[in-house]
Design a protein that fits this description.
It is built from 22 helices and 42 strands. With about 850 residues, the protein is α+β, with helices and mostly antiparallel strands. Helix 12 crosses helix 13. The longest helix has 19 residues. The radius of gyration is 40 Å and the shape is elongated.
C-alpha cells in the first residue's frame, strides 16, 4: 500500500518536518513492514507560463514546429531561473492557443528519466526551456500534446511554482500489508495505525461524508444459490445514482498526483473518483453507465458455460463458483474483481450508477486466482472489507461526482444489508499478561482495545470485547492479546531465553538422525532437499528390489501433472538433483538426503473422511482414526555419487566414484548409529547386477533388509543424463533406529599380542564371499578378532567354476598371549565349518 503524505496528513496530524522515513518508522512499530519511498523525480525551476505568441514553421522533414514566446514571470520581473521574464521556446505540439497557461521547465530543471533541461539550439532557434506534457512531468501517459492547465480547472498566476501547484512535491511511503490486516489497504486504515504509533489525533474520513437518504428503490436482487462454505457471496449491496455528469471535465491535478503516487494511473474523471475513494476508505466501488443497464441488477453465481467480456477486453468462460453482477442482458461484471465491457463508462456517458458492496473473501479470492485476474478491488475483498463502510463509500463517490464532474445526485438507489454484528469475545482478567509474558495493567488493556475501535463491557471474569467492523481478523482472546501487545509496544516485551525443563532432550531417533547427517557431511557428502513428487514409473523402478507395480499414493492436486505420486524411494529425487547440477557444470558430486518416503500397504485405503474441528483437540478415538488414514512414512537416507572422488592432479591420476564408495557411505551410516549393518550379494531392479549389495540387520525376528548399496544400472543412469558409473545407496533409517541401543558401547582395545594368519579357501564361484567369511567366523570362535577378505582370485591354478578367497585373520585372547598352535586350531575350526556349509577346501 502506497500512502501519499499529503493525503495521510488530512486524517492524522503530522508534525511539521515529518519525513517519509519518520512515517515508515512509526508504522513499523505497530507491525507494518517498510517497503519503499516514492517521489516525483523532478526538480525546478518549473513554473507556470503564459503563451504570448507563436509562429508556425514548417520543416524539411515534413514536421511543423512552433516558435513560441512564453512569459514565465509577472510583468517584466526576473524569471525563476534568474533569466528574462519572456523565453523563446521551440515546441512540437499544436494543442494550445495564445493565452494558454502551461507548465514551463526552465534551464537547470530536471524531469523524470532523468532528463536535464538546458538552453539548446534546435530548428534554427535557441530554445530557452521546454513546455511540458503530462507524461514528461510524470503525471500520466498522455503525450499527444502539452499540458494545458485550463483542462485541469486551474488558472494560476504566471510564475507560480508548478511543482507545488500540481502536487509534485509530495511523497508516498509504501508498506507491506500482511493478509490479516486488510483494513490497512486504505488511507483511513494507515492513518489509524499512524495514530496508534504516535498518539496523533485521528480523524475518520468515514465520518465526514454527509448522510445519505434513499427516496426510491433501484431494483437489486441477491440470488446466491451456491454459497461457498455456507457463506453467502454478498452481504451488502449499495447503489446510488448521479445524472448529467460533464465528461469534458478533467481529473484535478491534486487527484492525479495522489493516484500516481499511490500506484494507480489516471484514466478518466469518473474512474479516477472511484479509485480515489477505494484508496481513501478501503471500499472498492464500481461505476456503471446507467443508460446501458438492462433493468435492475441481480447478484448470482455463474451458469455452466456462461461468458463475460471484462474491462480488459478478454472474454472469459466462467465457473459455477464465480459470483456475478448481472442485468437483463446477462453478466455485466465479475463481482469484486473486474467490471464488464458492456456497461463501461465512456466519453458519452451522462448518467452513472454507483455500486458499493461487500463480498465474501473466499469467493473473490478463488475467482481472482481462477481467472488469473488480480485487481486492486480483489486484493481488498479477499482480505476482508469493512461492511459498514459501503454506504459511506457510495455517498463519497456521489459527493465527488457532484463537486468535480458537475453531476446531480439522484434519489434513485438501494440498500441491501444482511451483514451480522461481530460476536463478542471473552477476555479473562490476566490472560494478556500470561500469554505475552509482560505485566499489563487493566487500564492498558482497556485503552488499547478501545483505541482500535472495540466496544468493551466489564464482566465479573474480565472483559467482553466486541471487535470493530473493520477488524474481521479479531476472532478470539489470543488475537486480542496480540493487539494489546502491538498497541502498547513490542519494545516493552523483554527478550528472555526460555530455560529447558530438566529431564528432557532429543529422542534417540532425533539424536541418531543428527549424527547420521553430521557424519555424512563430515565425510564429504553434501545434503540436498529434493521434491517428494515422482512419476509412477520411477516408483515402480525404485520402490522395491524387483521391478513392477508397487502401492503408491497419488496427490489429488499435484503441482506438476507429470509427477503426481508421492515417492517410495529417495533415489529418484537425488538423481534429478544430480542431473540438474551436472547440467550446470558441477560434475563431481557426493550428495545425500534424509527424508520421509511413503510406503502404503497394498489393499489398504488411505484418507481422512472426518475433518476435525480446529478449535478443540481431537479425542483419542478420532486421533486413531486420523492416524489410520495416513500411509506408513519411514525415514530414509539416500546417497548418489558421480564423477571423481579425487580430481586429476600433477602426479596423481583421477579416481572416479564407484560402487565401493556407495558401500562406504552405508558403512558410515552404520558407524554413526552403532548398529551392525551386514552386507551380502543382492539384486535390485535399478542397480547393476553383480555390483549390488543388500544391507541387512540381525534382530530377534531374524535378518531384516534395510537397504541397498552399489552401482546404478547404466541404462537408468543414462536416462538421467548421468555417467554410466553412478554409486547409489539407500537405507531405511526408521528400521535401523529401531534396532539401535540407547548407548553405544565401545569395543575394548586388546592389550595382549595378536596372532595373524592368512586363510585361502577354494569354493564355487557362485558362493558369496560374505557367507564364507561368516562360516569362518562362526567356526573360529571367540579367539578370532577380525576376518577381512583381501583377495578373490580366479585363474591359473584354480579349476574352472571355482574361486580362491583369501582372508586375513587376527586372533587375540584377552588374558594371555596366544600360541601359534591355538591360532591354527581356531583357523582350522573355521575351515571345517566352511567346508561343511559350502564344500570349501584349503588352497594348496
Amino acid at each position: 500500500m502506497r500512502v501519499p503524505l499529503s493525503w495521510l496528513g488530512e486524517y492524522v496530524d503530522l508534525e511539521p518536518g515529518t519525513t517519509p522515513e519518520d512515517v515508515h518508522a512509526a508504522l513499523v512499530s505497530v507491525g507494518l513492514e517498510e517497503e519503499d519511498i516514492h517521489r516525483f523525480e523532478l526538480s525546478g525551476p518549473i513554473v507556470v507560463g503564459e503563451v504570448l505568441s507563436f509562429d508556425e514553421e514548417p520543416q524539411s522533414n515534413g514536421k511543423t514546429i512552433r516558435w513560441c514566446q512564453v512569459r514565465v514571470a509577472p510583468g517584466d520581473e526576473t524569471a525563476a531561473d534568474g533569466g528574462p521574464a519572456v523565453h523563446g521556446i521551440v515546441c512540437g505540439a499544436h494543442n494550445f492557443v495564445v493565452g494558454d497557461k502551461v507548465v514551463v521547465t526552465l534551464p537547470g530543471a530536471e524531469l523524470p528519466g532523468p532528463f536535464p533541461i538546458a538552453a539548446r539550439k534546435t530548428y534554427g532557434h535557441v530554445s530557452d526551456g521546454m513546455i511540458a506534457s503530462a507524461r514528461e512531468l510524470g503525471l500520466g501517459e498522455e503525450h499527444d500534446g502539452i499540458l494545458r492547465l485550463i483542462t485541469l480547472g486551474l488558472d494560476p498566476e504566471v510564475g507560480t511554482d508548478a511543482i507545488r501547484l500540481l502536487g509534485l512535491d509530495d511523497a508516498a511511503v509504501e508498506v507491506n500489508v500482511t493478509p490479516d490486516r486488510g483494513y490497512a489497504f486504505s488511507i483511513r486504515g494507515i492513518a489509524r495505525e499512524y495514530s496508534h504509533a504516535t498518539g496523533a489525533t485521528f480523524r475518520d474520513p468515514a465520518l465526514s461524508v454527509p448522510p445519505v437518504v434513499t427516496a426510491s428503490e433501484f431494483p437489486v436482487t441477491i440470488a446466491d444459490q451456491a454459497p461457498i462454505r455456507g457463506r453467502v457471496g454478498c452481504s451488502v449491496f449499495v447503489t446510488r445514482t448521479v445524472r448529467d455528469i460533464d465528461q469534458s471535465r478533467k481529473t484535478p491535478a491534486w487527484m492525479i498526483a495522489r493516484l500516481k503516487l499511490a500506484g494507480i494511473r489516471s484514466i478518466s474523471l469518473v474512474v479516477d473518483i472511484t479509485n480515489y475513494v477505494m484508496l481513501e476508505l478501503g471500499q472498492p466501488t464500481h461505476a456503471y453507465d446507467l443508460d446501458k443497464l438492462d433493468g435492475g441488477i441481480t447478484v448470482r453465481r455463474a451458469n455452466p458455460g456462461e461468458k463475460l467480456t471484462t474491462l480488459d477486453d478478454v472474454t472469459r468462460t466462467l465457473s459455477e463458483e464465480d459470483l456475478l453482477i448481472t442485468d437483463g442482458s446477462g453478466p455485466i461484471g465479475l463481482a469484486g474483481v473486474m467490471g464488464g465491457a458492456t456497461t463501461e463508462i465512456s466519453d458519452s456517458s451522462r448518467n452513472v450508477l454507483i455500486e458499493a458492496a461487500n463480498f465474501d473473501p473466499v469467493s473473490i479470492a478463488r475467482s481472482a486466482r481462477r481467472h488469473k485476474l488480480p485487481s486492486e478491488a480483489s486484493k481488498r475483498f479477499e482480505r476482508g472489507v469493512d461492511p459498514a463502510v459501503a454506504v459511506v463509500a457510495a455517498a463519497r463517490v456521489v459527493q465527488l461526482l457532484v463537486e468535480l464532474a458537475g453531476g446531480v445526485a439522484d434519489d434513485l438507489g438501494s440498500l441491501h444489508d444482511t451483514s451480522t454484528d461481530a460476536t463478542p469475545i471473552e477476555l479473562p482478567t490476566g490472560f494478556v499478561s500470561g500469554l505475552i509474558g509482560l505485566e499489563y495493567t487493566a487500564d492498558e488493556v482497556r485503552s488499547s482495545l478501545a483505541e482500535i475501535g472495540a466496544s468493551l463491557e466489564e464482566t465479573g471474569a474480565g472483559l467482553l470485547v466486541t471487535p470493530p467492523t473493520w477488524r474481521p481478523d479479531l476472532t478470539d482472546k489470543w488475537t486480542l492479546a496480540e493487539e494489546v501487545a502491538r498497541i502498547v509496544g513490542y519494545d516493552r516485551i523483554p527478550s528472555v531465553l526460555p530455560v529447558a525443563p530438566p529431564g528432557r532432550g532429543l529422542t534417540l531417533a532425533q539424536t541418531l538422525r543428527r549424527t547420521v547427517a553430521t557424519t555424512l557431511a563430515a565425510t564429504g557428502h553434501t545434503e540436498v532437499l529434493a521434491y517428494p513428487f515422482v512419476s509412477e514409473a520411477a516408483n515402480d523402478l525404485f520402490g522395491s528390489p524387483e521391478a513392477g507395480a508397487v502401492p503408491q499414493i497419488k496427490v489429488a492436486n499435484p503441482l506438476d501433472g507429470e509427477v503426481p505420486f508421492l515417492r517410495t524411494s529417495i533415489l529418484p529425487g537425488l538423481l534429478q538433483v544430480a542431473h540438474r547440477n551436472r547440467s550446470r557444470g558441477l560434475t563431481d558430486l557426493a550428495i545425500y538426503e534424509l527424508g520421509l518416503v511413503f510406503r502404503p500397504v497394498a489393499g489398504v485405503t488411505y484418507g481422512n473422511p472426518v475433518v476435525p474441528p480446529g478449535a478443540v483437540r481431537p479425542s483419542a478415538d478420532l486421533e486413531a482414526t486420523l492416524n489410520a488414514g495416513i500411509p506408513p512414512q519411514p525415514l530414509f537416507v539416500g546417497a548418489v555419487l558421480t564423477g571423481n572422488l579425487v580430481r586429476h592432479q600433477p602426479g596423481l591420476p583421477a579416481m572416479a566414484f564407484g560402487w565401493q564408495d556407495a558401500l562406504a557411505t552405508a558403512q558410515q551410516v552404520a558407524l554413526a548409529t552403532g548398529v551392525a549393518i551386514h552386507v551380502r550379494q543382492g539384486t535390485h531392479a535399478a542397480m547393476h547386477p553383480g555390483r549390488t549389495a543388500e544391507l541387512f540387520i540381525t534382530t530377534d525376528a531374524g535378518d531384516e533388509v534395510v537397504g541397498y548399496a552399489g552401482e546404478l544400472l547404466p541404462t537408468v543412469a543414462r536416462s538421467y543424463d548421468l555417467p554410466s558409473v553412478v554409486g547409489v545407496a539407500e537405507i531405511n533409517l526408521s528400521a535401523v533406529f529401531a534396532a539401535a541401543a540407547h548407548e553405544i558401547v565401545a569395543t575394548p582395545i586388546g592389550t595382549k599380542p595378536a596372532a595373524t594368519q592368512d586363510l585361502s579357501l577354494v569354493v564355487a564361484v557362485d558362493v558369496p564371499a560374505a557367507d564364507v567369511r561368516q562360516a569362518v567366523i562362526d567356526g573360529a570362535g571367540e579367539l578370532l578378532e577380525s576376518a577381512e577378505l583381501v583377495d578373490d582370485y580366479r585363474g591359473t591354478g584354480v579349476p574352472d567354476g571355482l574361486k580362491s578367497l583369501t582372508f586375513a585373520l587376527r586372533f587375540r585372547a584377552p588374558d594371555r598371549t596366544l600360541t601359534a598352535a591355538e591360532a591354527s586350531d581356531a583357523k582350522l575350526a573355521g575351515v571345517a565349518v566352511a567346508a561343511a556349509r559350502f564344500n570349501a577346501s584349503l588352497r594348496e
